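Record pair follows.
FIRST:
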Amino acid sequence: MLADIELSQTDPVDELSRIFWGILTPDLSQTEDLIATIATTLCFALVAICLSAIVGLAISPFHHLWWVNGICTFVRSIHELFWALIFLQIFGLSSLTGVLAIALPYAGTFARVYRDILDQGSVDFNQAFCGRVSGVSKWLYGGVAQCWPALTRYTRYRFECGLRSATVLGFIGLPTIGYYLETAFSQGLYHQAGGLLLLFYGVIATIKYWLKAMLIPVYLVLAILYLPWKLSIEWQYIWRFISEDIVPSPLRSTLIDWQEWHSWWVDVAQQVFNGGWATLMLSFAALLLSAVLTLILWPLASKAICRRGYMVGHGLLIVLRSTPELIIAFMVMLVIGPSMLPAIIALALHNSAIIAYLLARTADQLPLRHDKSSGLNLWAYELQPRIYPSFIAFLCYRFEIILRESAMLGILGVTTLGFYIDSAFEAMFFDVAMMLILASALLNMIVSYCASRLNRSRQLFG
């Protein structure tokens, strides 16, 4: 086993019991500005998702162009936490930092997925429209209008993802719920942390009741008015950051010291290799555990298998998929100590819950014979073989997400690329940080390409 999964805590039962007892007996009375914290998290997510959805929809007709596809792939390959660290140097701890950090990678994702939805549901525009109709009208009325239900369903799902992203941004100081969760867990205030988590679950579980299409413009206006947009931008510092700070240090002088240039590249290459290797090991381990947990979890949320008891499994999946990986990893790290194991467990629990939910929904839509089996036999001999292609496809798709999250979890001390990126920002080595971020993006793009080719080959050859 190449991954570092050593247990540092010899007696984790006591800490684990304290965490669970805190979650079971939540306390919200001592949490300051709780309503403001939830409102800020919601506002960050809402403004960012609306902005990214509009940009993504506008880009989607051109996503087939290689250079547009390349730009979208690049921006979504960089985790929103890394974008936040970059914008933090320009705009400081401001609302603009949080909104742009979420909106930029999400716009690249929206452009790709919207394009796929429109391609699958669109009709032949030339046959559907007669006369001289502009291309924009054909696109809006023949494509967007026809696929509007699918577009809105995916946008609603991304809003839930945006809430998790906004929560994670609290770990770098933005006043979202993640900031208070980290503080509560770090200080051992598990009753307060439990209350915050349960409140967060409640917000996500009730999205379908309060996130109505007719109310979104009202929510958006209120969110824009609520967030503090005051910026004290010093353009000379921004120009210095762009023109000097992120330029490799050996190139800043007129005379290049080749020995210094060689040493700088060797140091960066060493960090890229060590961080990239750790990121890959962590990602593959998390993918394998995700596959195993998915096979265990999805039957628990299936009506066909568990019948009335499926709601218990469905509730478990809501909790696991609603909790950001960074929060889960932070909790597990408090119990078993720092290593790769908390990150592996966190990634596996979160991603297996998402895949299990999708598989359970797919399995429940399959037609079954009147003389079907039940229980374990129904799962093993009928449903699982029939949804196996979807199982592999979901794993390939989620592996790209796991790789991005593996790099990001380095801020907790796991020696992935995120660890070296965070260390470089703390030491104000912005040139090194930018090279590491580019390396992380390149690694994600390579894995994304390989996963898509593998999935395409599986579809062609069955």
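SECOND:
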Amino acid sequence: MNPANPGAGTGPARYRSKTLAAWLALALGSLGLHRLYLHGRGDALAWLHPLPTALGLLGVWRMRTLGQDDRLAWLLIPLLGLMISAAMLAAIVYALTPDEKWDARHNPGHAVVPTAWGAVLAAIAALMVGGAVLMGTIAFSGQKFFEWQLAAPAEARP
């Protein structure tokens, strides 16, 4: 059995839709489901996605429970933002990959299937969500960094 193509040797490989991969990345990409869809359960990177996402959600929970002075939450929340932004980038890349290149990589032996508007709509949605989340993550991190700098004792500052 070929690890790069789990369906090899057991008949024709399953078809992997570019549109479905883009929408999976958009909806549940921070958990790595788009990678599980494309590469199977043996993909180590797919299994690494849930940990930083869970840590980011823990940071959100800590901030909601303990308030804005919880410094551990300051460190954990940007992980969630970065994982969501990375998933949106993956959705954009998947959606904008030319059909011939997509099918050559993910569907060898299958005829090229032209993509309709579903992939384009996924790219538009991912660009909107990813841009908002990334800008929010940068703003949150910058704000908390400067608040931390202001809260530091005057003698500890350079």
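COMMENT: The chain has seven helices and no strands.
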